Amino acid sequence: MIPRYIVDFDASELTQLEADVLIIGSGIAGLYTAIKAAENRSVLLITKKALMESNTRYAQGGIAAVTSGEDTPASHMQDTFIAGAGLCEPEAVRALVHEGPDGIQELIRLGTAFDRENGELALTREGAHSHRRILHANGDATGYEVVRALSEQVVAHPAIQVWEESMVIDLLTEHGECIGALVQKPDGERWYVTANATILCSGGSGQLFRYTTNPDIATGDGTAMAYRAGAAVRDMEFIQFHPTALCHPGAPRFLISEAVRGEGAVLRNIHGERFMEQYDSRQELAPRDIVARAIVHEMERTQAAFVYLDITHEPSERVKQRFPTIYRTCLSFGLDMTTDWIPIAPAAHYMMGGVQTNLYGESTIARLFACGEVSSTGVHGANRLASNSLSEAIVFGSRIAQRLHSLPPLAGRTLIAYNDNRAELRSLSVVEERRKLQKTMVRYAGVHRHGEGLQAALDALHAQLSVFKAVITSQEEMEFANLLTCALLVTDGALLREESRGAHYREDFPKTNDSVWHKHVQQRREQGITEECVHDI
């Protein structure tokens, strides 16, 4: 059993702070929501690294929204539904496609400089999109530009206070409400922070897997904390593996944007043969789950560790201008994408599931909200459509800020104490345990899954539960506890869902089964794992 809190504490012995709005995380969701919330209230934003360090920073492809007269929200909605494989919540998608364009204008107002052509916003196309609707910045550095602009606004805002290098340990709850969080500052001192509203914007859990496009900080902290607090999490079995991550000796699994395929790149196996037409009529522009599985199948068939991405047929100057970051990064490892085929393989990229929310970002716990990758709004279903993530963050960040207007003041703040009689287990090697967890997840819960393997994964993960009986002090130990929590949720959900759908592929149940599994999988700490119907269109 995962405990309620991962550390013992007595609030009466801790430094205390009262905040109006507490935001955890500094990606696009955290920064944008902070700016919107600070229009009429004070905000404390906490991030465990530097303000600009987040998954958003590394987002290359762009942000999806209808800004062209040749495109329509209905078309964007339909593309999202198709990619989501039947599990998208219609009202959430409707909010995304209709409110996303206004969010783009707000990002521009806040200083984001999207690329333009002849004075108009430059648009590209990515996999599973029927139109060119992806806005980008500095070619392939969209995430960095968005975070740069929003960070400058946050730092300059008089109503926003920022705590960097600070780790949120757990959410605090009393009488069914979230009243704040337990926080560890850089010097190790723990603070008891209470807030009228707490908003999780802490990103995903790519570090569940050894090979991931995510930075080291993506350890599923918000999802794990919310689950321990009693919130419902949903669809955790759906982990998106990006089809094209650099696979080269000495190089990290650097993301090669989907936009490269959108601009004409093709996939070739180790023998130089194109293969996507054998798997899907949309070929390289099929949804990510299909392309990732095709690549893995081709690697297995040819006994290779990678396949190639080839854009050498496109004009070299156009490639360098459109993808300057990718070009420079590949070149630093001796690969010139204008003349060389780039070796790639799938890598863990995005978590479709997360903290279940309604259309205004509210979780199943009063006063606790979630926004961005940590949330499960229902937009992405079983497989996220490319570049919908940044759009989701701004749309639902705005909706959360709207909901804060009607949130009554928190009536009294209780000082909580918690003691689980934890023992000193200094022999616990977090680095070794984390690698063991990642090895388990890669082997049994990756692109291809099987019931026997998933059960073996659960058994291996349960053997690591001793961490929750240890006295945890460091950020690395807290992150491992969060990863273990998320790993158990992902594996448990994947074992329950006896079908293949979107990013979840079961070799022992290779077909989609709408008659039984056209539903979400919901997990709560006290109630266990249940099923929830999908709303009809």
Question: Summed up, what is this model?
Answer:
With 537 residues, the chain is α+β, with helices and mostly antiparallel strands.
Please describe what this structure looks like.
This protein is α+β, with helices and mostly antiparallel strands and 537 residues long. The chain folds into three domains: 9-238 and 352-404, FAD/NAD(P)-binding domain; 244-348, Succinate dehydrogenase/fumarate reductase flavoprotein, catalytic domain (Flavocytochrome C3, Chain A, domain 1, Alpha-Beta Complex), CATH 3.90.700; 417-510, Fumarate reductase/succinate dehydrogenase flavoprotein-like, C-terminal domain (Methane Monooxygenase Hydroxylase, Chain G, domain 1), CATH 1.20.58.100. Helices cover 32% and strands 20% of the residues. It is built from 14 helices and 23 strands. Strands 2, 3, 9, 10, 11, 12 and 19 form a seven-stranded mixed β-sheet that branches. Strands 20-18-13-22-23 form a five-stranded mixed β-sheet. The chain has a four-stranded antiparallel β-sheet with strand order 14-17-16-15, with helices on one face. Helix 2 packs across helix 3 (90-109). It is globular. The model has no long low-confidence stretch (mean pLDDT 94). It holds the Pfam family FAD_binding_2. One of its GO terms (molecular function) is L-aspartate oxidase activity.
Summarize the topology.
Elements: E1 9-10, E2 15-24, H1 28-37, E3 43-46, E4 63-64, H2 73-83, H3 90-109, E5 116-117, E6 120-121, E7 123-124, E8 134-135, H4 142-156, E9 160-163, E10 167-174, E11 177-184, E12 190-200, H5 221-229, E13 233-234, E14 239-246, H6 258-262, E15 266-268, H7 288-302, E16 307-310, H8 316-322, H9 324-332, E17 342-351, E18 354-356, E19 368-370, E20 375-376, H10 388-404, E21 417-418, H11 430-444, H12 451-462, H13 475-496, H14 514-517, E22 519-524, E23 528-533
